[in-house]
Design goal:
55% of the residues lie in helices and 9% in strands. With 256 residues, it is mainly α. It folds into two domains: 159 residues, no CATH class; 96 residues, no CATH class. The chain has a three-stranded antiparallel beta sheet. Strand 2 and strand 3 form a beta hairpin. Helix 2 packs across helix 3 and helix 5 crosses helix 6. This is DUF4303 domain-containing protein.
C-alpha cells in the first residue's frame, strides 16, 4: 500500500464513496427482496443499517412485531424472576415498558445480516486495513482509494449524503429549543417521542431520520434542572404509561 499526494501515473480501479454507495444500495435491495419472500415477512416495522466506520462494515437489521412480542415476553419473564430474587427496582417494569425499551434495540432483533457480497466485502476489507494500518491484505487488482474516503465523517456522508443535511437541520431545532424554558423543552421533546410512532414530517425525529434516543438525549443533557418538572409531570393524572416510563428513566439517568 502506497500513500500518494496525486494520481499521476497511477493505474488501477478507483473506489470512491459513490462506488460504495451503489454496492451498498444493491446489497440492501437484494436483502430486502430475499426477506420479502420468507414466511417471516409479516408485520415488519423497522429496517436498520448499522455502519462501523472504524472497521469498515455494514450490518442490516430487520425486525417484526411478532418477533418483538416474543423477545419482550422473554425479557419480561426474566425481569419478574430477577425482581423477586434481587428486589432491584431496575427489574420492576411492565410488559409494555419492556417492549418499548426493546423496540429499537438492534442487538435484540431476530433478523441480522452481516455477510457482505464479495465485491463490497473486498473493498471494505481494504478500507479496514488502511484505516487500522494493518497491511496484511492484498487486493487481487491495484485499487485506488481517495484519501478523503478515509476521513470518518466524509466517509459517512459519502455513503449517506442526505444525513449531513438532516444533522444540520435537527441541530438547528435542538439549539432553538435550548433558548426556551426547561418546562417547554420537556413538553416539546416528550411530544416528539410520543408522536414519533406515526412517522410523519410533522414530527422532527422522523422528518430528519433521527430516533427517540436523540430526543431523549436532549432532555438528559439539560441536567438536574429538569428534575422538578419531571416530578411535576409524573403527577399528571392523564400521563400515558409510555410517558411515565420515559420520565422515570430520565430521573435515573440524570441522577446517575
Amino acid at each position: 500500500m502506497i500513500e500518494r499526494n496525486d494520481l499521476h501515473g497511477s493505474t488501477g480501479v478507483v473506489v470512491d464513496a459513490k462506488k460504495i454507495e451503489d454496492l451498498l444500495f444493491q446489497h440492501c435491495t437484494e436483502t430486502i427482496n430475499k426477506f420479502a419472500k420468507t414466511d417471516e415477512n409479516k408485520g415488519v416495522y423497522v429496517f436498520s443499517l448499522y455502519t462501523d466506520v472504524t472497521h469498515g462494515s455494514f450490518i442490516i437489521h430487520i425486525n417484526t412485531e411478532e418477533a418483538l412480542e416474543k423477545t419482550a415476553n422473554r425479557y419480561y419473564e426474566n425481569y419478574k424472576k430477577k425482581l423477586i430474587e434481587t428486589n432491584d427496582s431496575f427489574y420492576d417494569r411492565s410488559f409494555e415498558q419492556t417492549k418499548i425499551s426493546l423496540r429499537f434495540s438492534e442487538g435484540d432483533f431476530d433478523f441480522s445480516f452481516e455477510d457482505l457480497p464479495d465485491q463490497l466485502n473486498d473493498i471494505m476489507s481494504l478500507y479496514y486495513c488502511i484505516n487500522l494500518k494493518e497491511l496484511n491484505y492484498s487486493p487481487e487488482q491495484d485499487t485506488i482509494i481517495p484519501k478523503s474516503l478515509m476521513d470518518h465523517q466524509l466517509y459517512f456522508i459519502g455513503v449517506f449524503p442526505e444525513e449531513k443535511v438532516n444533522d444540520e437541520e435537527f441541530l438547528k431545532i435542538v439549539q432553538r429549543q435550548k433558548s426556551k424554558s426547561v418546562k417547554e423543552q420537556l413538553e416539546f421533546w416528550l411530544l416528539q417521542i410520543k408522536s414519533n410512532k406515526w412517522r410523519t414530517d410533522n414530527n422532527v425525529i422522523s422528518k430528519y431520520c433521527k430516533t427517540d434516543y436523540h430526543a431523549y438525549e436532549c432532555l438528559v443533557n439539560i441536567g438536574s434542572g429538569l428534575l422538578p418538572y419531571i416530578i411535576e409531570k409524573l403527577n399528571e393524572i392523564d400521563l400515558s404509561e409510555a410517558e411515565r416510563y420515559i420520565c422515570e428513566e430520565l430521573i435515573n439517568d440524570i441522577k446517575s
